Q: What sequence folds into this?
């Protein structure tokens, strides 16, 4: 669940110098980033570089540890498998919804909803649908068109105007690179590409164009990845710099920290957290530079029965959120 | 001259408590503040001469520079210490609640995990299974 991508094989043994003349073969894969590969070869096997993580999920490990799904109130999730591929899910949530407001104080509105979901999971095809009592609906489709090409669809329908969204992604997974093309409503087009440049380092870039707002942007990213540590850095032309560092101290413990700087409003935030995966529970905790402290505990009471505890303290705003829940049945 | 200025700035604070301020003024700054002296004398007059030795002693103590300095120091210390106590209290509250949320569950869970591992190791040795360190059994 820690989800740290570790390479199955250790870096291959150094090749004889004759490997260097095979480099141009590999270069056909890396059209735009080939200049990054021209490093002194001979120490690593450039032909067997591992496939990098996709651009969207570069910071997934840090996010997993630092951004648990905190909630306030009570929630109950029930998943019932009908057969090996098909399952239904029911979920009830009762709690408070925070209303956005200009004043520093937060307004909370009590809310409750029921969510019904249907999942179809197959190695080649994944269909997930969710519908809420307040009329929101979301659907997710993932379909492997071929071994290397995957199509993903994300859609959200609401009864309010202009909040419905749809997004199509096409992922191409090469041997040591990944490319993605995405388009969404509001004339959003984007593409990204990430390439392994050494057994541990991957570099990537993205371009996007928001047609309705007539905005475009560029992004650059780097990810350094070993069994123990993961370092990522992302820079976007919107003025956002995001750095993250994940350290796997042991089988059970992972520590993560991240730093985010927004040039537009000159705000920097950083947080540090831990993620313990024990036999009976998973516990995540973090401390934020905004004065927020949060912890999220998933305790396994019985097989398939999980007890959730969520706590979030905002010391500066004096906003305290606590939640508990149960989740019965697993996927 | 400087001292007189100091005294005058201090005057509004101490006027109510020190009834015979004029005497002190005369002693400390002869001839310098003659303009305002008569006014102060008039204010200070009732009860100045008619007290006993103890009262006079008390007056001289109250009028001395050391007394004022001390009093000011005490009131400052009181104010600062109040502030410090309040802020340390707040810091302690933040640290304590932070520990309750982030630290305590971790300690409890790690302890529970260790206990569970111990129990499993114990059971494994009872059943006669090949003895295995509990940590390895946990990893699977």
A:
């Amino acid at each position: 669940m820690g989800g740290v991508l570790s390479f199955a094989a250790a870096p291959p043994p150094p090749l004889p110098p004759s490997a260097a003349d095979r480099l141009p073969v590999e270069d056909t894969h890396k059209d735009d980033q080939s200049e990054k590969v021209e490093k002194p070869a001979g120490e690593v096997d450039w032909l067997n570089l591992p496939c990098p993580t996709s651009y969207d999920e570069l910071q997934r490990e840090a996010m997993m540890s630092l951004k648990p799904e905190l909630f306030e109130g009570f929630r109950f999730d029930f998943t019932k498998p009908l057969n090996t591929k098909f399952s239904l899910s029911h979920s009830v949530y009762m709690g408070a919804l925070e209303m956005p407001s200009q004043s520093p104080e937060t307004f909370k509105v009590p809310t409750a909803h029921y969510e019904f979901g249907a999942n179809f999971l197959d190695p080649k095809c994944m269909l997930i649908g969710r519908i809420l009592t307040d009329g929101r609906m979301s659907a997710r489709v993932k379909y492997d068109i071929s071994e290397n090409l995957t199509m993903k669809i994300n859609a959200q329908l609401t009864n309010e105007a202009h909040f419905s969204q749809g997004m199509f992604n096409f992922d191409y997974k090469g041997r040591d690179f990944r490319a993605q093309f995405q388009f969404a409503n509001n004339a959003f087009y984007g593409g990204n590409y990430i390439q392994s440049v050494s057994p541990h380092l991957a570099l990537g870039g993205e371009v996007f164009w928001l047609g309705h707002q007539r905005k475009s942007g560029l992004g650059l990213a780097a990810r350094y990845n070993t069994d123990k540590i993961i370092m990522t850095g992302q820079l976007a032309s919107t003025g956002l710099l995001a750095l993250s560092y994940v350290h796997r101290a042991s089988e059970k413990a992972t520590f993560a920290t991240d730093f985010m700087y927004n040039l537009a409003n000159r705000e920097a935030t950083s947080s540090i957290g831990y993620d313990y995966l024990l036999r009976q529970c998973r516990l995540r905790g973090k401390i934020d530079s905004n004065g927020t402290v949060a912890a999220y505990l998933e305790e396994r009471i019985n097989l398939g029965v999980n007890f959730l505890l969520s706590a979030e303290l905002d010391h500066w705003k004096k906003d305290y959120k606590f939640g508990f829940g149960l989740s019965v049945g697993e996927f | 001259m400087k001292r007189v200025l100091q005294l005058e700035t201090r005057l509004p604070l101490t006027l109510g408590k020190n009834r015979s301020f004029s005497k002190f003024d005369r002693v400390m700054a002869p001839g310098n503040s003659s303009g305002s002296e008569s006014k102060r004398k008039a204010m200070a007059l009732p009860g100045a001469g008619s007290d006993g030795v103890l009262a006079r002693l008390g007056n001289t103590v109250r009028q001395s520079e050391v007394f004022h300095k001390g009093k000011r120091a005490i009131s400052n210390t009181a104010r600062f210490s109040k502030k410090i106590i309040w802020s340390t209290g707040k810091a302690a509250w933040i640290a304590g609640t932070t520990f309750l949320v982030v630290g305590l569950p971790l300690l409890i869970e790690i302890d529970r995990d260790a206990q569970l591992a111990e129990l499993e190791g114990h059971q494994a040795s009872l059943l006669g299974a090949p003895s295995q360190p509990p940590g390895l059994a946990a990893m699977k």
Q: What stands out?
A: Chain B has six helices and no strands.
